[in-house]
């Protein structure tokens, strides 16, 4: 069939070169690379396809705003989320005294979370690849001395990923290694951002234009948190999955949730999946997991068997552990008196406090208007299924909200958190009857995060003292699941890692993981470009190790 379409039974009868579970930045880029090399690739995606031509897709706005009536019942609400490329999974946060359940604001569908992301595609610092040295007292953290690969080894793959994703931006003046990147220029700073840039520069700091995977078409608002309606957002769906299907013969099964992997002691034999109430047993020479750093470890833990009593590939007991999720707080700033910022304007980066006084903190980015970001926060911080945001848009409340909370430019201090064995994701102990995936999460801040976060936020507010500011400390809230990573880390020691340096499971010959699960540290920057670059690196390894002719 054309353009990647095939029936589930046809997919089951085939023996694929590679089955890629998940179509986010890791799976999309790896699958595209392998399909272009002539491999028979099957993408298996639990969410819906939102590729061009798919009927019913919600674009240009979050579904809660595009279809507010969908919130009248759970069924219609979850359907709207799915048509907008959003996850309908339920997470049970068991970190505190009382469990809290919520639907995470992450992607599910073609492109995964990259279909919703703000398009920042930035290389890590070279020093990020030797992380432990960057912290005064990492305490009981498992942060390693070094990644099993270096910046120099990943650099050519960074360059390939930047080209595939059409990244544009300016070099960070604080990074010598950024001087040789030579990205195409982004548009000038907008009128909303320019006063802040001038203030920061006047303080002796070094703001720069964030590298963005964006085509900047006329009227482009650098959309984030929803699907792009103008085809200017470069993501794993548009730049990976779509050309893999339409140009290189790959195939896609969407709305197909992988339940478990069947394996003997050395190889995965079948991928067991559910597709429209049918159970499939899919077969491939190589199986690549790219379902995200929450779903991938849960899938492995759910793949227990006589040969794998603790979960597949879990001889180290590290599967699901070392969960990281950047600590992201919001500081709204009014850089000019009476300003009324309404656009998203994700443009400014600042790394003067990334490494500061011998300690490591993170980056600062402009993220647009409060109205858009506050909507995201309210959607992911409610005990029930119905969004609180719907109450905020009522005529009685809106004028008060606009007067006191709207109109400023939001800055996001994004701080690196460290990995700990007790921060983890686990399968749910209460499977549901509505076909929604459920999992449990345990994550608490340790001493290093608490101390560094306080210093980081205070230092940024000091720089902004001339302006009116409003701080929303969302970083401690586990519902703010930005940039989840670390739950199947790679490393050289099978006792303290799940994957080897090529992202292959230590204990299995044909199982790989290429989503952000593989990170042994979270760094302090957006993970998308590093996930994409590493996926291209792993794809080249697969071509040589498994399919060389």
UniProtKB/TrEMBL annotation:
Domain Glucose-methanol-choline oxidoreductase N-terminal intervals: 100-327
Protein name stated in the entry: Glucose-methanol-choline oxidoreductase
Stretches assigned to the FAD-dependent oxidoreductase 2 FAD-binding domain: 17-65
Cofactor section: FAD
Molecular functions per Gene Ontology: oxidoreductase activity
Domain Glucose-methanol-choline oxidoreductase C-terminal: 476-535
Family, as annotated: Belongs to the GMC oxidoreductase family.
UniProt keyword terms in alphabetical order: FAD, Flavoprotein, Oxidoreductase
Keyword Cell cycle in record: no
Listed InterPro entries: FAD-dep_OxRdtase_2_FAD-bd, FAD/NAD-bd_sf, GMC_OxRdtase_N, GMC_OxRtase_C, P2Ox-like
Highest taxon of the lineage: Bacteria
């Amino acid at each position: 069939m054309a353009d990647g379409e095939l029936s589930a039974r046809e997919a089951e009868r085939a023996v694929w070169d590679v089955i890629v579970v998940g179509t986010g930045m890791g799976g999309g880029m790896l699958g595209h690379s392998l399909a272009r090399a002539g491999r028979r690739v099957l993408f298996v995606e639990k969410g819906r396809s939102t590729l061009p031509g798919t009927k019913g897709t919600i674009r240009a706005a979050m579904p809660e705003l595009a279809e507010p009536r969908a919130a009248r019942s759970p069924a219609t609400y979850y359907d709207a989320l799915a048509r907008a490329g959003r996850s309908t999974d339920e997470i049970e946060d068991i970190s505190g005294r009382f469990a809290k359940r919520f639907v995470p604001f992450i992607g599910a569908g073609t492109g995964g979370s990259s279909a919703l992301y703000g398009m920042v595609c930035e290389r890590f610092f070279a020093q990020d690849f030797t992380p432990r040295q960057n912290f005064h007292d990492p305490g009981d953290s498992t942060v390693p001395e070094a990644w099993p690969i270096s910046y120099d080894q990943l650099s050519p793959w960074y360059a390939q990923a930047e080209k595939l994703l059409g990244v544009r931006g300016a070099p960070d003046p604080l990074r010598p290694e950024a001087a040789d990147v030579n990205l195409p220029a982004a548009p000038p700073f907008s009128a909303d951002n320019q006063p802040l840039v001038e203030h920061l520069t006047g303080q002796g700091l070094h703001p720069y234009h964030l590298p963005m995977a964006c085509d900047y078409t006329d009227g482009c608002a650098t959309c984030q948190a929803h699907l792009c309606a103008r085809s200017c957002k470069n993501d794993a769906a548009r730049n990976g999955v779509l050309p893999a299907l339409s140009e290189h013969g790959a195939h896609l099964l969407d709305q197909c949730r992988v339940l478990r992997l069947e394996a003997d002691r050395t190889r995965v034999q079948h991928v067991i999946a559910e597709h429209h109430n049918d159970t499939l047993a899919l077969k491939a020479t190589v199986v690549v997991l790219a379902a995200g750093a929450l779903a991938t470890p849960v899938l492995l833990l759910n793949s227990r068997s006589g040969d794998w009593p603790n979960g597949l590939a879990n001889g180290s007991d590290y599967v699901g552990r070392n969960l990281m999720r950047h600590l992201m707080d919001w500081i709204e700033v009014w850089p000019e008196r009476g300003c009324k910022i309404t656009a998203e304007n994700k443009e400014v980066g600042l790394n003067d406090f990334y490494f500061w006084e011998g300690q490591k903190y993170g980056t600062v980015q402009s993220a647009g208007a409060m109205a858009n970001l506050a909507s995201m926060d309210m959607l992911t911080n409610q005990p029930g299924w119905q969004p609180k945001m719907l109450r905020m848009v009522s005529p009685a409340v809106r004028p008060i909200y606009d007067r006191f909370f709207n109109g400023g430019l939001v800055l996001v201090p994004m701080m690196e958190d460290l990995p700990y064995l007790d921060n983890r994701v686990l399968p749910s102990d209460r499977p549901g009857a509505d076909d929604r995936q459920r999992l449990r999460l345990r994550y608490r801040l340790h001493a290093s995060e608490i101390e560094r976060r306080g210093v980081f936020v205070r230092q940024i507010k000091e720089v902004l003292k001339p302006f009116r500011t409003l701080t929303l400390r969302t970083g401690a809230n586990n519902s703010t699941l930005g940039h989840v990573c670390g739950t199947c880390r790679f490393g050289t020691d099978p006792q303290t890692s799940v994957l080897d340096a090529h992202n292959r499971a230590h204990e299995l010959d044909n199982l790989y993981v290429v989503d952000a699960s593989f990170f042994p540290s979270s760094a302090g920057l957006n993970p998308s470009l590093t996930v994409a670059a590493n996926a291209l690196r792993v794809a080249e390894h697969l071509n040589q190790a498994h399919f060389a002719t």
